[in-house]
Design a protein that fits this description.
The complex is a heterodimer. By secondary structure, chain A is mainly beta. Chain A contains 3 helices and 8 strands. Chain B is built from 12 helices and 11 strands. In chain B, α3 packs across α12. Classes of the chains: A mainly beta, B alpha/beta. Chains A and B meet through β4, β5 and β6 of A and α4 and β5 of B.
């Protein structure tokens, strides 16, 4: 951490002006419980027909894959874990509009070793050093505390 | 074998509000004002409308928002939504119902009141598990620009200059359009020095957040000549929805939009177009961001893959160029009131076909294309509508 100001901000000791963007929604315990393997374990699938590893960090939900994105096989998969796999940055942005505690939001589209691609937030990074081809690894983080519930998920971080 | 919409439906009236931060107008005003212009343009009244489709993403659920605003008297009204492509979806609903022989005269209206949200940008979209990566819409399109620059060997300076020229062109056209939101000419220097919204996209690479409404009266083609204006016929109307595999697998290059390419191919086949660049006389495409317009030129086969920069540098897409794109100023200058945009894109060619486009008038256009895109580059639904005489 570069300075004490960042510490105060991250610990929410000094309040910040709210971003002019939508508030995070309440945690939906039923959805988080249902998708617990994908969310907490970073479990995806490997298609038995075409062999493609897949993880769906989707727009509407981080959810289960029922139909293979490559060959359209349905429910014919082996479990496949992404948590300990290294990945490289395929593309990225530094987003100043996104409401994050340490802007810009560094968002990366990563390609996992062995196959599979997904978007993740990039954390513990120097925005100036993010580039295509950068090696990253996955790290488990707390995202949100809401009405007594904590929400956890994975982020990417540069390999140290 | 699917049928074809070609020459079965005609647009005989259109309306479009001024787009902008319309603090004194709500959704009802946007609907009533755009529909009134369309009705009076077609020389008919609301009681002549047999069915209506309203396209909106955020501004009201159900057909009631439209029927209530217009006090439509117990006719069928359906709200349609296909993300940012909702405007074309309303046109599609009306066109297909007419082509099916169910109705003779239908209304399509698109509208969106974005400036009541009390914040910047678009309202948030649902993420059921609250685990979505923290990127805004500029962010997910910026990721395409980053990739495009890398794939085609453009330095950030070269890439940003290529994109900047797109916005300079659109602002010139917008400056000539009294209905546009942003009506100032800009310079490339201004674009390059503007604050970054999501790297590498800066302020002028992003379309505005605006309110607006646009409406069209569609009729059976064989009735079209009985209306006061020169009718404009629907030549093709094709949509393509993404299986969203580009986010999961390495097959997607993130430097094009597959769904736009495929919707273009289907629309060209439906309209009988062999050489889009030569046969299309003007185009309104979904330039939510400058990079979107750049890759869309390639997806619609106006420019070869990876070489849109040559056409941008040559001025091909300027108002006086070989193939004018965004003659009205585009999303860049109109902003993007979601449901309205797809119909606003048809309003401009409609004026050009009738010789009513004022200082933006193109010479004797025969075919025009409107490209309406919803959602992210890796997961969109894209509509391509071709209209002509």
């Amino acid at each position: 951490m570069a300075n004490y100001n960042d510490y105060l901000r991250w610990r929410e000791i000094v309040p910040l002006e709210a971003a002019r963007r939508p508030e995070k929604q309440h945690i939906r315990l039923s959805a988080v419980w249902r998708e617990r393997r994908q969310l907490l374990g970073l479990w995806g699938i490997k298609c038995k027909r075409c062999g493609t590893p897949q993880y769906d960090n989707g727009a509407a939900t981080t959810g289960p894959i029922r139909v293979c994105a490559v060959c359209q096989a349905q429910d014919d998969f082996d479990d496949y874990n992404f948590a300990k796999r290294k990945a490289t940055v395929f593309s990225y942005t530094q987003d100043n509009l996104a409401p994050v505690i340490d802007p810009p939001a560094s968002v990366v589209l990563v390609e996992f070793e062995g196959g599979g691609r997904a978007f993740f937030d990039l954390t513990d990074r120097d925005p100036a050093k993010v580039e295509i081809g950068m090696p990253v690894e996955m790290t488990f983080r707390k995202l949100q505390f809401d009405r007594g519930l904590s929400n956890y998920f994975w982020k990417a971080r540069p390999i140290r | 074998m699917p049928g074809s919409i070609k020459d079965r439906v005609a647009i005989v009236g259109m309306g479009c509000t001024k787009f902008g931060e319309l603090w004194d107008k709500g959704p009802t005003d946007l609907i009533v004002d755009s529909v009134n212009e369309a009705l009076s343009d077609a020389g008919i009244e609301m009681k002549d409308i047999q069915a209506a489709w309203g396209g909106t993403l955020f501004s009201g659920a159900g057909g009631r928002t439209v029927s209530e605003a217009l006090r439509a008297q117990y006719i069928p009204v359906t709200r349609v939504e296909n993300a940012c492509g909702s405007g074309h979806e309303a046109i599609r609903g009306a066109s297909y119902a007419i082509a099916a022989g169910i109705y003779d005269i239908c209304l399509a209206v698109g509208y969106e009141k974005l400036k009541d949200e009390g914040m910047s940008g678009l309202p948030g979209m649902e993420n059921r598990t609250n685990t979505h990566y923290q990127s805004s819409m500029p962010g997910v399109f910026a990721i395409m620009a980053t990739r495009y620059f890398a794939r085609y060997g453009l330095s950030p300076e070269e890439g940003k200059a290529m994109l900047g020229k797109i916005s300079v062109k659109s602002h010139h056209n917008g400056s000539l359009n009294p209905k546009a939101h942003l009506r100032r000419e800009i310079t490339l220097e201004q674009v390059l020095n503007a604050p970054i919204i999501a790297w590498p996209l800066g302020l002028f690479d992003c379309c505005g957040v605006s309110d607006g409404g646009a409406a069209a009266i569609l009729v059976r083609a064989d009735m079209a000549k009985s209306f006061p204006n020169k009718p404009v016929y629907v030549k093709a109307l094709q949509i393509c929805a993404s299986p969203t595999s580009g986010r999961l697998t390495s097959e997607y290059d993130y430097t094009h939009v597959e769904e736009a390419y495929r919707a273009g191919i289907a629309a060209y086949a439906e309209a009988g177009i062999k050489n889009p660049r030569k046969e299309i006389n003007l185009a309104e495409v979904h330039d939510c961001f400058s990079i979107t317009e750049a890759v869309t030129m390639e997806d619609l086969q106006f420019s070869p893959r990876g070489r849109v920069k040559e056409d941008i540098d040559a001025g091909t897409f300027q108002l006086d160029g070989e193939l004018p794109v965004q003659p009205d100023g585009g999303l860049k200058c109109f902003g993007h009131p979601i449901g309205a945009s797809g119909i606003r894109m048809l309003y401009e060619p409609y004026l050009h076909f009738q010789g009513r486009a004022g200082p933006r008038q193109t010479k004797d256009p025969k075919l025009a294309l409107a490209h309406n895109m919803g959602n992210e580059p890796y997961a969109p639904v894209v509509s391509v509508c071709i209209v002509g005489l």
